[in-house]
């Protein structure tokens, strides 16, 4: 299977492993089970916006939750809210549930919680509901140059 994410990773000459699923999934737990990994290895990405429609992608380990107040503090914003599911694809280029920190349609700050770096392998969306991508967290950090800050709860 080839996706925009795997094509981009191939262009960047990054080692990765495609994790195929037998069915589309709707939760972190279900996805981790389908991919044969622990939820903590997944990179959960939440698209947020401030009152001026500035976007940010907040990422944490799959077994944690993003705290919008902490993201707001990191970015010096008065208020940050989740983007509606209907708007996710227009903003990122990926359907809700398939957004990762790579190959986004537009530039936005990407914030990684340190929990992402605790595993020797992490997984992100391939951009397709039927597969994920496993890679070294150091490669992922180098590719998307995130702000690293405590943004989870």
Short description:
It is built from five helices and eight strands. The chain has helices at 4-11, 28-35, 68-75, 85-92, 137-144, and strands at 17-20, 43-50, 55-61, 80-82, 110-112, 122-128, 131-135, 147-148.
Weakly predicted, low-confidence segments: none
| Spatial sequence of strands, sheet with the most strands | 4-2-3-5-8
Shape: globular
Please describe the biggest sheet, giving its number of strands, its sense, and whether it closes into a barrel: 5 strands, mixed
Give the termini separation: 35 Å
Order of helices and strands: HEHEEHEHEEEHE
Helix share bin: 25-40%
Strand tally is 8
Q: What is the average per-residue confidence, as pLDDT, rounded to a whole number?
A: 95
Please state roughly what percent of the residues sit in beta strands, choosing from under 5%, 5-15%, 15-25%, 25-35%, 35-45% or over 45%: 25-35%
Radius of gyration: 14 Å
Structural category: alpha/beta
Q: How many helices in DSSP terms?
A: 5
Describe the structure.
- The chain is of the alpha/beta class and 153 residues long.
- It is built from five helices and eight strands.
- The protein has helices at 4-11, 28-35, 68-75, 85-92, 137-144, and strands at 17-20, 43-50, 55-61, 80-82, 110-112, 122-128, 131-135, 147-148.
- The strands form two sheets. It has a five-stranded mixed β-sheet.
- A hairpin with a 4-residue loop joins strand 2 and strand 3.
- The longest helix is centred in the N-terminal third of the chain and has 8 residues, at 4-11.
- The protein is globular.
- The N and C termini lie far apart (35 Å).
